[in-house]
Amino acid sequence: MSLRCPLCHNALQAGEKTAVCAQGHSFDRAREGYFNLLPVQNKNSLNPGDDAAMVAARTSFLEAGFYTPFRDTLRGLFAPLQATHLLDSGCGEGWYSTELGKTAQKTTAFDISKETVKRAAKRSRDITWLVASSQDIPLQDACVDVMTAIFSPLPTAEAARVLKPGGHLFIAAPGEKHLWELREALYEEVRPHQAEKWQEELAPAFRFHSEAEISFRIELADNAMLKNLLQMTPHYWRAPRERRTAVEALPAFSTQVNFRILQFCKKTAS
Ligand SMILES: C[S@@+](CC[C@H](N)C(=O)[O-])C[C@H]1O[C@@H](n2cnc3c(N)ncnc32)[C@H](O)[C@@H]1O
Ligand SMILES: [Zn+2]
After folding, report:
1. pLDDT tens per residue, the chain (270 residues)?
2. Rounded to whole angstroms, what are the CA distances from 153 to 22, 109, 262?
3. What is the pTM of this model?
4. Could you tell me if 244 and 186 are in contact, meaning their C-beta atoms sit under 8 angstroms apart?
5. What is the C-alpha to C-alpha distance for residues 163 and 151, in angstroms, rounded to an integer?
6. CB 127 within 8 A of CB 101
7. Count of H helices and E strands in the chain?
8. 35: closest CA among 20, 52, 56, 46?
9. Nearest bound ligand to CA 11?
10. Nearest CA to ligand 1 atom 10
């Protein structure tokens, strides 16, 4: 095990029922199998992360398979790396972690939202599921070969700390045209998503490896699935209410999806 205590940063030994550090800090394993390693003082709200409705909508949408080609692309990139230890940061309900974990000997996945981790833990007993923050990842230094953050926040210093030298970091983010037609229906004016400038931020500890883009069209044949898509995105709250209500009433919808996958390599000591 490569866990570390979120309170004192000593190694954490995980057993069947509890995880304990040398200082005697102890964390119970939840019934679903995960450990909650998010100290109360690191929570900035009572239930941080995505809320239950958002999580339920995302689960239904992902399980319907609309993003399977994207997940398969990621899996294709991970498989040749034959990771000893894969880490999925901000894993949500684990739809990606479970599949991507098949490319690695061992997988750890965490999210700040207890609601999502509870759902994720039901997917697989082979993955170490944690409630934790990416601001203070409860893993020891240099223990991860492949790390991914899929549509989730990525504190670069923590990524650099937990990855082994030569380890791979994959960031998946919306491309310029992601959900273009949906955004056209929701906003007066639609602008291409601004590409985040990861290169600059990661440069001190990482070497840029490559960028891949994947685009395809999704056909939402019923209103329930359209509502799921709407509810799992920030547009649900951001869009003007009138426009959102009009979109929510549509019987079906078709939109393009567009993802960017950036790959970086942790520098080896020079
Ligand atoms: C858009 S969701 C993506 C979830 C999953 N990767 C997916 O694509 O299905 C973003 C996730 O990041 C999580 N999150 C937000 N802040 C976080 C933090 N500081 N540490 C860990 N997870 C965080 C949220 O709870 C949410 O599950
Ligand atoms: Zn401790």
Report:
1. 699 999 999 999 999 999 999 999 999 999 999 999 998 766 666 566 567 888 899 999 999 999 999 999 999 999 999 999 999 999 999 999 999 999 999 999 999 999 899 999 999 999 999 999 999 999 999 999 999 999 999 989 999 999 999 999 999 999 999 999 999 999 999 988 777 778 888 999 999 999 999 999 999 999 999 999 999 998 998 999 999 999 999 999 999 999 999 999 999 975
2. 31, 14, 14
3. 0.95
4. yes
5. 19
6. yes
7. 10, 11
8. 20
9. 2
10. 152
Pocket test for ligand 1, best of 111, 150, 229 (most atoms within 8 A of CB): 111
Pocket-forming residues, ligand 1, beta carbon under 6 Å: 49-50, 58, 90-92, 95-96, 111-113, 116, 133-135, 150-153
**CATH code assigned to 33-266:** 3.40.50.150
Domain boundaries of the chain, sorted by first residue = 33-266
